[in-house]
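Writing this down once: the sequence line spells out the residues, with the fold written below as integer tokens. This is how one looks:
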Amino acid sequence: MNTYTQILYQIVFSTKNRERVLTENNRPQLFKYIYGLLKNKNCHLYRLNGVEDHIHILTGLHPSVSLSSLVKDIKIGTSLYIKENRLFAGFTYWQEGYGAFTYSVRDRDMLIEYVKNQVEHHKKLTFRDEFIAMLNEHQIVFDEKYLI
């Protein structure tokens, strides 16, 4: 018997202190690197995007990969990549923690569009407000002191 899963995650994390350092011109290089990390873990990338202070990754997790180890590998790998390649001036590191939200496959197309349109979306809404809305939507209890 084989293992069959459909685990669709939207993973969200920010730069330390929400520093607005992820400049638009170098984001494609960062996203390509993240795609490679996901591919090496046999995870399917549906969409990846972000703005100056955070990124969204919409991915299907392979059953052999734990969410926490994947996020850890992405954050450590990209931090080194950013610093070695001087990709973003002022980047120190990623925030501690992350948000990860599961969705039904029926929501996939809507989520792809949502992540695709991050730049437009954030002309109207701050990352903090967006993140709180996601936490509330998924009925996740949180402490505001961690939402600097």
